[in-house]
UniProtKB/TrEMBL annotation:
It catalyses: N(6)-dimethylallyladenosine(37) in tRNA + (sulfur carrier)-SH + AH2 + 2 S-adenosyl-L-methionine = 2-methylsulfanyl-N(6)-dimethylallyladenosine(37) in tRNA + (sulfur carrier)-H + 5'-deoxyadenosine + L-methionine + A + S-adenosyl-L-homocysteine + 2 H(+). The gene is miaB. It comes from the Bacteria. It comes from Sphingomonas anseongensis. This is tRNA-2-methylthio-N(6)-dimethylallyladenosine synthase. InterPro entries: Elp3/MiaA/NifB-like_rSAM, Methylthiotransferase, Methylthiotransferase_CS, Methylthiotransferase_N, Methylthiotransferase_N_sf, MiaB_methiolase, rSAM, rSAM_horseshoe. Residues 368-429 form the TRAM domain. Monomer. Keywords: 4Fe-4S, Cytoplasm, Iron, Iron-sulfur, Metal-binding, S-adenosyl-L-methionine, Transferase, tRNA processing. The lineage of its organism: Bacteria, Pseudomonadati, Pseudomonadota, Alphaproteobacteria, Sphingomonadales. [4Fe-4S] cluster 2 binds at C152, C156, C159. Binds 2 [4Fe-4S] clusters. One cluster is coordinated with 3 cysteines and an exchangeable S-adenosyl-L-methionine. GO terms for molecular function: tRNA-2-methylthio-N(6)-dimethylallyladenosine(37) synthase activity. It is found in: Cytoplasm. Belongs to the methylthiotransferase family. MiaB subfamily.
């Protein structure tokens, strides 16, 4: 049966969210309609980064069986699809299609084949061809994602991304600028440039800072962000842009992973704590109020108590405005999975708790330092309480505001109260959207 309705569920990073939006546009162009429940076709856009995320993909597939025993057409997409390929079909007979993150532009043909009873698999990693065969962008969110760079050549020893997303490639300048313009025409006020190593973006001798400066020229675009950056690719020219491009928001996600140089070396991160801290210093010299965010892994193989404490110390040294922390998860095919000294789960649990408490202290300190500031908040969605909306400050804080403003409005707000994960703001004056 040819499906008429579809539902897409995206997990993992923002690049998967972007891919999910593009898949939705592609299926809509085929005449299918999005449906909240009981769709004819379900696309599970999965994440392979940690074991839990990957296992979730299969339990989600199982849950798609309907009460009457029937099931929708099921496409396994994203990084689990890439990592497992046709193995996925063997693991679950319910899966009709397996499509990797660089091949989803082929979904229309694959759906036709699956509707005829086939079980197609496409996990090719062709350089960028998907972008050429996707429909033009039309409708955009107030804050919209735009993938400019894909893949990773860094091969951190714990990480699956180089295998699931392929080699580092940059989309061409003109394509990115055209898509940014289309997003602004469709209503975007903020564009978040995405890549697994977004600051490695380069095309025709130009780097990310030049792309940011070009996109900043688009009338009607208010804000630019980019994520995720690798410390090794944080060039002086990109840092300088933080002090010069008004639309570039004062926020930088720059994962360090550990505060121990021995662990960093074993992780094959190409930075040391010292080079990382010097980069942060330069960024702060260019943009003193910048909010720094990061990622951490606790319990990397061989991590001692002392090495873990060095991670606590770097959290305080950087004064992170926000940070994400994870228990190390051994991933198939990665070098770290074979290393000696795998850390027991109880030790990881205990370290994660201590790290998260330290991060919370720093988040709260950052948020408190902004109380009393007048700033602008881009409204994104309704809050939990009546009359409350949630938006983002330039520093990417979630700000709760009592207002009748709509998503896409930008409000002048005074930050009045700080929590570890959000702020309360009071409207100063309403601006036209
Ligand atoms: N390209 C980005 C992030 C990629 S994945 C970067 O290099 O920073 C997002 C985060 O997941 C990583 O920063 C890391 O902290 C975490 N992560 C990746 N692999 C992991 C693993 N095997 N176990 C636990 N956390 C992991
Ligand atoms: Fe993974 Fe390292 Fe590449 Fe980030 S830089 S995606 S952590 S291999
Ligand atoms: Fe997950 Fe793939 Fe992103 S593994 S974090 S969805 S690149």
């Amino acid at each position: 049966m040819t499906p008429k309705t579809f539902k897409i569920k995206s997990f993992g990073c923002q690049m998967n969210v972007y891919d999910g939006e593009r898949i939705a546009e592609l299926l809509a162009e085929q005449g299918m309609t999005a449906s909240a429940d009981d769709a004819d076709l379900v696309v599970l856009n999965t994440c392979h980064i940690r074991e839990k995320a990957a296992e979730k993909a299969y339990s989600d597939v199982g849950r798609l069986r309907r009460d009457d025993g029937s099931k929708p057409l099921i496409a396994l997409a994203g990084c689990v699809a890439q990592a497992e390929g046709k193995e996925a079909k063997a693991r679950s007979a319910m899966i009709d299609m397996v499509v990797g993150p660089q091949a989803y532009h082929r979904l229309p043909e694959m759906i036709a084949e699956a509707a005829r009873g086939g079980r197609p698999v496409d996990t090719d990693l062709p350089a960028l061809s998907k972008f050429d065969s996707l429909p033009k962008r039309r409708r955009a969110n107030p804050s919209s994602f735009l993938t400019v760079q894909e893949g990773c050549d860094k091969f951190c020893t714990y990480c699956v991304v180089p295998y699931t997303r392929g080699a580092e490639i940059s989309r061409p300048w003109a394509d990115v600028v055209a898509e940014a313009q289309a997003l602004v025409d469709g209503g975007a006020l903020e564009i978040v440039l995405l890549g697994q190593n977004v600051n490695a973006w380069a095309h025709d001798g130009r780097g990310l800072q030049e792309l940011i400066r070009e996109i900043a020229r688009i009338d009607g675009l208010e804000r630019i962000r980019y994520t995720t950056s690798h410390p090794a690719d944080m060039s002086d020219a990109l840092i300088a842009a933080h002090g010069e491009v008004e639309k570039l928001m004062p926020y930088l996600h720059l994962p360090v992973q550990s505060g121990s140089d021995r662990v960093l070396k074993a992780m094959n991160r190409s930075h040391t704590t010292d080079t990382y801290l010097r980069t942060i210093e330069k960024v702060r010299a260019a943009r003193p109020d910048i909010a720094i965010s990061g990622d951490f892994i606790v319990g990397f193989p061989g991590e001692t108590e002392e090495e873990f404490e060095a991670t606590l110390q770097i959290v305080d040294a950087v004064r992170y405005a926000s940070a994400y922390s994870f228990k190390y998860s051994a991933r198939p095919g990665t070098p770290a999975a074979q290393m000696e000294g795998q850390i027991p789960i109880e030790v990881m649990d205990e370290r994660l708790q201590r790290l998260q408490a330290r991060i919370t202290d720093n988040q709260l300190a950052f948020n408190r330092s902004t109380v009393g500031l007048g700033t602008r908040v881009l409204i994104e969605r309704p809050g939990r309480r009546a009359g409350q909306m949630i938006g983002r400050s330039p520093w990417l804080q979630s700000v709760h505001v009592h207002t009748d403003a709509k998503p896409g409005d930008i409000l002048d707000v005074t930050l009045v109260e700080a929590g570890p994960n959000s702020m309360a703001g009071a409207v100063r004056q309403r601006e036209a959207a």
